[in-house]
Amino acid sequence: MGVFKRAYLYVTRKKVRSILLFLIMLVTGLFLLVGLSIRASAQKAADEVRKTMNTGLVLEMNPISGEHLFELAQNEDGEMERRLKVPLLTQSKLEQLLDIDGVCGFFSEMGHETLYTGLEVRPGGYSKELQQIEETDPQGLDESLRQSRLSDETYSHTNGFYLIEDGRWHPFFANGALELTQGRHIETGDYGKAVISEELAKMNGLQIGDRINSYNFDFITGERYGTAFESEIVGIFRINFEQDLSNWTSEDNIFANIIFADPNMRHWAQVEYNTHYGNDVLARESDRVISEVTLFVEDPLLLDSVKEQVLANDTVDWSYYSLKRYDHDYQAAAGPLRTMVKLSTVLAVIMAAGALAVLSLILTMWVRSRKREIGILASIGVKKQTTLAQFLLECCVVAAAAFLLAGLLAGPVTDVIGNGLAGMVSSPGSAQPFEVVIDQQSNVMVNKMPDAEVSLTYHLTPGTASGVFLTMLLVSVTSVVVSSMRVIRQKPRDILGGG
């Protein structure tokens, strides 16, 4: 009787054993297919998010006394100017960093100026406080409220100016919170340019080409002083979310009121301030010191490489700086997907490891229980290799049948388990796609919120299916070979005699 016929007869006659082995292999294959399919889909979605999100490296100067970093001296024109005592990052050195492979842009903000413009703005905390004063003292007779009234009148017509070099890479625009709808962004080399919101333009009848006059003022008294800084409107942006305002949100922190301007406003503001209060007026820096800059990287996977190349630039003493990742938007958007990758991996490993362990144990016990059969076959002259081939053929036939059914069930089972995992990792849901955070230093950040629901399409690839089938065969063949060889290598009389 040939090996194929013996294998067929054993599988069909030993129905209980064959069905048990079939079910174990079915569960093993099914959970491997499901887990790997969910993992592949979540990883693919996370990779797609990674390609669309801006990530980078933040270089931020540590808080160090200015006396340690700078010295004051007169320039050729007799003006006082700051001179570096240590090698810090400057505008010219920044150009070197922008040539690093993988760096696609940069964002360097020169801070935030709160200036009086006299424009109609969306009311904030100061407007509400002024309204309460006017309701309490409509005639303006209360001397104790006079100073607060004057201060609030100024603050309620202020705008927050964000001084930037290249508006394209400002985080608010980069993550989609703000969207340029008319004109252009602030660009390197601009002087006296501004980009305002659609709401601010509509409230004041402003358009591209119009000009805004801004004034410094005393932050305590509200008294305005000095000359105006004139800015030409070159762009208008739309706000893609509704900001959650409290009674304490000041006008300059309301997004409808913010204005993006070029860095030249900073030097003007400092000159006006120092002149008004009798301080030394410093000359404009010929090579501006960069206290903080974000280098945007094409791919988050390149962040470590870019960091190494940055630190390799020895024209800057990097001990004065701290380096950290800028990838909050990517982490927020891809967080649920990455969690799904981890959960599906754990699911596949635990379930498959358990099923494979049981499968290995069952096959080992199955082969050992056939010692008499092995002895009889050996005594009638059947070669050891032929007996082993029969056992392997039996196992492979059952494995193939189980895998085919597992492949048919994998689609609907993956949808059920995948949707369940997606529900577990999905956030409760947010009314807005962005979250505005104002820290204790009045720095405003706009963080992208993760999607409320994770929705994936699951596909079983030929590579995944082949890998699962080969894994099942490998475990089965290994178990059969190891268990069989311990018996087959004995002599027939020893096998039959129990030796």
UniProtKB/TrEMBL annotation:
GO terms for molecular function: transmembrane transporter activity. Its main location: membrane. GO terms for cellular component: plasma membrane. Coiled coil: none annotated. The chain crosses the membrane at residues 346-367, 388-410, 468-488. Residues 346-492 form the ABC3 transporter permease C-terminal domain. Keywords: Cell membrane, Membrane, Transmembrane, Transmembrane helix. This is FtsX-like permease family protein.
